[in-house]
Amino acid sequence: MVQFTQISDTLLVPGMFTEFDASNADSGPTLQPYDVLLVGQHTKSPAPAVAASQVFTVAEVEAIAGRGSQLAMMAAAYFANNTITSVSIIPIDDDGAAAPATSDIVVTGPATATGSLRLIIAGFQVNVGVTNADSANTIATAIGAAVTANLDLPVTAAVVTNTVTLTARNDGEAGNDFRVFLNYFTGQTTPAGVGLTLNPFTGGTTNPALAQVFAAIPNSQYHVICSPYTDTTSMAALETEADARWDALKAIEFAYLGCRQDTAANLITYGDARNNEHVVVFGVNNSPSPPLQLAAAAAGQIARSGEQDPALPFTSLELAGMLPPLPADQFSFANRQNLLLDGMATFRYGSGGEVQIERARTNYQTSAGGSPSSAYRDLNVHLILSYLRFDWNARLTNGFARFKIGDPEINYAAGSRVITTKSAKAFGVNVLARWALQGLIEDLASAKASFTVDRNAAEGGRLDFRFGPDLVNGFRIGATQIAFMP
Q1: Would you list the domain boundaries of the chain?
Q2: Looking at residue 1, what is its pLDDT?
Q3: Quick count: other Cβ atoms within 10 Å of Cβ 401?
Q4: Are 82 and 52 in contact (CB under 8 A)?
Q5: What is the pLDDT of residues 441-478, one digit of tens each?
Q6: How far apart are CA 115 and CA 218, in angstroms?
Q7: CB-CB contact of 362 with 382 (8 Å)
């Protein structure tokens, strides 16, 4: 018996009528396209609305958020690593009580030879010509002019005699992570007679509150969210929102990607104090590329890989356009091991200067009961579970929309829009087999054995499913012993 949805059994008007049933159309893997959200401060006046805007180029971001803004820098890093995945931005104002970070470059002279100063400021190369006999004041003025001429730089410059004061365009703590380098690349030299004292960026205070961001997207899902903020207040807000959106009744979860700059010891202390399965914070030290750009570049690579296959490890994915710390500032093997033990994600650096993701681990370290746990250690676990829920719900919805629940002991005619606990279990076991073939779960036999479906005692129109798949593990470590023959 065919059970029609559009052609009624009471139809009396003669004619040939055909309807379509697409419930079995999705036979292959369900696609879960990602949406990425970049959150950061703008430099525009008047201020743009705190609202999500889908963007496709850096120029579009600059039109909304301004050149030299946090968002413009993040977008440049993101698009250098991902031009496929959908991405939106939310621009936010500097906090009213915030202060910008500043740094002084103090010049000594005069020059006794002609040449160039090769600077890197907040990840941007700034070249300044120097002529023989130029005074310190003249060279300082030239540095200031070069900075001012580059509107993409996230800093402005003011010159007083032989001192150039750089000021972050955006207030807040992110500017403290900007670095200034002289002769970063091998072979670069300073013109004879010229000296530069590079003082660190300091004084940036108070990041914007993130409640306004989530108020702007109350029911929208962004699978990966990235911002410059890793301070305690911001992290608490992010963790609370991530937990709320992971809830079964909302199911609009996100993974948060950030990057924090500090010494290994301080980062270990920071990571040890955090514990959330949806949050990844990379640790870095004295990086030419600012942490906000490293985070955005990582978000681009992770989103592109994750939507293709959430189970693939992210190890060795290269962050295009990012500069590594100098060798003396790169974390040692022991540093990285301890960072990973204490909830921090890590980068590694190739011999050609490549910046690569080493391990994208989450902050999760202990269970709700306070016991050490590795259940959600790697970001892949979050992404796999997100996909399994998405796929499961989609298959239930597409396969059994407008069905009735029937008695499993009754042999209903083929085509009847009736689901029973028996047919529901067969459906579920088939889905598990699909996930195994996709490389998302392993030990299929145990997963099938764990599968149960019952009719809810209180609500007759509800089926209750339970199953325990063993998520596939990423191949991250190979341990080999080569033994001599006796």
Answers
A1: 35-93+209-381, 102-198, 404-471
A2: 65
A3: 11
A4: no
A5: 999 999 999 999 999 999 999 999 999 999 999 999 99
A6: 56
A7: yes
Here the tokens at position 305 are 């890989």
Confidence of residue 26 (pLDDT cuts 50, 70, 90): low
Beta bridge partners of 418: 404
**What pairs with residue 180 in β-bridges?**
121
What residue type is 480 in one-letter code? T
pLDDT in tens, 140-179: 999 999 999 999 999 999 999 999 999 999 999 999 999 9
CA angle (102, 45, 145) in 5-degree steps: 45
**Which residue bears the tokens 């942490």?**
291
Please answer whether residues 229 and 239 qualify as being in contact, where contact means their C-beta atoms are separated by less than 8 angstroms.
no
Q: Answer yes or no: are the C-beta atoms of 128 and 190 closer than 8 Å.
A: no
What is the length of the chain? Answer: 486
CATH class of 102-198: mainly beta
Q: What is the largest CA-CA distance in the chain?
A: 103
Q: In 10 A of CB 316, how many CB atoms? A: 11
Which is nearest to 446 in space by CA: 472, 467, 415? 467
Whole-structure pTM value: 0.95
How confident is the model over 59-83, as pLDDT tens digits?
Answer: 999 999 999 999 999 999 999 999 9
How far is 231 from 207, CA to CA, in rounded Å? 8
- Torsion sign over Cα 345, 349, 353, 354: negative
